[in-house]
Amino acid sequence: MANAASGMAVHDDCKLRFLELKAKRTHRFIVYKIEEQQKQVIVEKLGEPNQGYEDFASSLPADECRYAVYDFEYMTEGNVPKSRIFFIAWSPDTARVRSKMIYASSKDRFRRELDGIQIELQATDPSEMDLDVFKSRAN
Protein backbone atom coordinates (compact mmCIF):
# COMPACT_ATOMS: atom_id res chain seq x y z
CA MET A 1 0.00 0.00 0.00
CA ALA A 2 1.47 3.35 -0.98
CA ASN A 3 2.06 6.12 1.50
CA ALA A 4 -0.40 8.95 0.93
CA ALA A 5 2.16 11.66 1.76
CA SER A 6 4.91 10.53 -0.60
CA GLY A 7 3.48 7.67 -2.64
CA MET A 8 6.05 5.23 -1.18
CA ALA A 9 5.16 1.59 -0.62
CA VAL A 10 6.93 -0.59 1.94
CA HIS A 11 8.32 -3.87 0.61
CA ASP A 12 7.23 -6.91 2.69
CA ASP A 13 10.88 -7.83 3.17
CA CYS A 14 11.35 -4.67 5.29
CA LYS A 15 8.89 -5.86 7.93
CA LEU A 16 10.04 -9.48 7.72
CA ARG A 17 13.71 -8.60 8.36
CA PHE A 18 12.71 -6.27 11.21
CA LEU A 19 10.73 -9.07 12.88
CA GLU A 20 13.81 -11.31 12.57
CA LEU A 21 15.94 -8.63 14.26
CA LYS A 22 13.37 -8.04 17.00
CA ALA A 23 12.32 -11.60 17.80
CA LYS A 24 15.21 -13.83 16.74
CA ARG A 25 18.17 -11.42 16.92
CA THR A 26 19.38 -12.67 13.52
CA HIS A 27 20.59 -9.18 12.51
CA ARG A 28 22.43 -6.44 14.43
CA PHE A 29 21.16 -3.72 12.09
CA ILE A 30 19.15 -3.12 8.94
CA VAL A 31 19.68 -0.29 6.46
CA TYR A 32 16.64 0.66 4.38
CA LYS A 33 16.68 2.58 1.11
CA ILE A 34 13.90 4.28 -0.83
CA GLU A 35 13.95 3.01 -4.39
CA GLU A 36 12.63 6.12 -6.16
CA GLN A 37 11.87 4.44 -9.51
CA GLN A 38 9.86 1.66 -7.87
CA LYS A 39 8.42 4.07 -5.29
CA GLN A 40 9.05 1.70 -2.40
CA VAL A 41 11.24 1.21 0.66
CA ILE A 42 13.56 -1.81 0.36
CA VAL A 43 16.21 -3.52 2.51
CA GLU A 44 19.66 -2.39 1.39
CA LYS A 45 21.92 -4.08 3.95
CA LEU A 46 21.65 -6.52 6.84
CA GLY A 47 24.20 -6.53 9.65
CA GLU A 48 25.33 -9.86 11.09
CA PRO A 49 24.67 -10.41 14.83
CA ASN A 50 28.42 -10.24 15.55
CA GLN A 51 28.86 -6.90 13.80
CA GLY A 52 29.11 -3.79 15.96
CA TYR A 53 28.46 -0.10 15.92
CA GLU A 54 31.41 0.70 13.59
CA ASP A 55 30.05 -1.70 10.95
CA PHE A 56 26.63 -0.09 11.26
CA ALA A 57 27.93 3.50 11.02
CA SER A 58 30.11 2.71 7.99
CA SER A 59 27.14 1.16 6.15
CA LEU A 60 25.34 4.54 5.98
CA PRO A 61 26.34 6.51 2.85
CA ALA A 62 27.98 9.90 3.51
CA ASP A 63 25.81 11.81 1.02
CA GLU A 64 22.55 9.87 0.69
CA CYS A 65 19.53 9.51 3.00
CA ARG A 66 18.60 6.18 4.57
CA TYR A 67 16.44 4.71 7.29
CA ALA A 68 18.09 2.25 9.63
CA VAL A 69 17.28 0.07 12.61
CA TYR A 70 20.01 -0.76 15.12
CA ASP A 71 19.80 -3.27 17.97
CA PHE A 72 21.90 -1.55 20.63
CA GLU A 73 23.13 -3.78 23.46
CA TYR A 74 24.48 -2.27 26.67
CA MET A 75 25.02 -2.90 30.37
CA THR A 76 22.99 -1.09 33.00
CA GLU A 77 24.66 0.39 36.06
CA GLY A 78 23.80 -2.82 37.89
CA ASN A 79 25.65 -4.86 35.20
CA VAL A 80 22.46 -6.17 33.66
CA PRO A 81 22.67 -6.71 29.88
CA LYS A 82 19.88 -4.90 28.02
CA SER A 83 19.10 -3.86 24.49
CA ARG A 84 17.07 -1.15 22.80
CA ILE A 85 15.92 -1.03 19.19
CA PHE A 86 16.71 2.32 17.61
CA PHE A 87 15.17 3.75 14.45
CA ILE A 88 17.55 6.17 12.72
CA ALA A 89 16.44 8.65 10.08
CA TRP A 90 19.76 9.42 8.36
CA SER A 91 19.58 12.62 6.30
CA PRO A 92 23.06 14.10 5.76
CA ASP A 93 23.36 17.78 4.86
CA THR A 94 25.12 16.76 1.62
CA ALA A 95 22.16 14.69 0.35
CA ARG A 96 20.02 15.94 -2.53
CA VAL A 97 17.12 18.15 -1.42
CA ARG A 98 14.59 15.97 -3.27
CA SER A 99 15.90 12.90 -1.48
CA LYS A 100 15.67 14.61 1.94
CA MET A 101 12.08 15.63 1.20
CA ILE A 102 11.05 12.12 0.13
CA TYR A 103 12.62 10.52 3.20
CA ALA A 104 11.12 13.12 5.54
CA SER A 105 7.61 12.74 4.12
CA SER A 106 7.73 8.91 4.22
CA LYS A 107 9.37 8.47 7.63
CA ASP A 108 6.38 8.42 9.98
CA ARG A 109 4.41 5.86 8.02
CA PHE A 110 7.44 3.65 7.47
CA ARG A 111 8.34 3.80 11.15
CA ARG A 112 4.79 2.74 12.09
CA GLU A 113 5.22 -0.37 9.91
CA LEU A 114 8.05 -1.50 12.20
CA ASP A 115 6.27 -2.43 15.40
CA GLY A 116 8.69 -2.53 18.31
CA ILE A 117 10.89 0.51 17.77
CA GLN A 118 11.86 1.86 21.19
CA ILE A 119 13.89 4.99 20.43
CA GLU A 120 14.05 7.26 17.39
CA LEU A 121 17.04 9.32 16.28
CA GLN A 122 17.28 11.93 13.55
CA ALA A 123 20.82 12.45 12.29
CA THR A 124 22.30 14.81 9.72
CA ASP A 125 25.91 14.02 10.52
CA PRO A 126 27.74 11.12 12.22
CA SER A 127 28.25 13.02 15.49
CA GLU A 128 24.46 13.07 16.02
CA MET A 129 24.40 9.27 16.20
CA ASP A 130 27.72 8.32 17.72
CA LEU A 131 27.96 5.66 20.41
CA ASP A 132 27.62 8.18 23.24
CA VAL A 133 24.26 9.33 21.82
CA PHE A 134 23.01 5.74 21.78
CA LYS A 135 24.22 5.19 25.37
CA SER A 136 22.59 8.36 26.69
CA ARG A 137 19.28 7.69 24.92
CA ALA A 138 19.11 3.98 25.88
CA ASN A 139 18.91 4.58 29.64
Automatic annotation (TrEMBL):
GO terms for cellular component: actin cytoskeleton. The keyword tRNA-binding does not apply. InterPro entries: ADF-H, ADF-H/Gelsolin-like_dom_sf, ADF/Cofilin. Keywords: Actin-binding. CDD domains: ADF_cofilin_like. GO terms for molecular function: actin binding. Residues 5-139 form the ADF-H domain. Pfam families: Cofilin_ADF. One of its GO terms (biological process) is actin filament depolymerization. Belongs to the actin-binding proteins ADF family. PANTHER family: COFILIN-RELATED. This is ADF-H domain-containing protein. The lineage of its organism: Eukaryota, Viridiplantae, Streptophyta, Embryophyta, Tracheophyta.
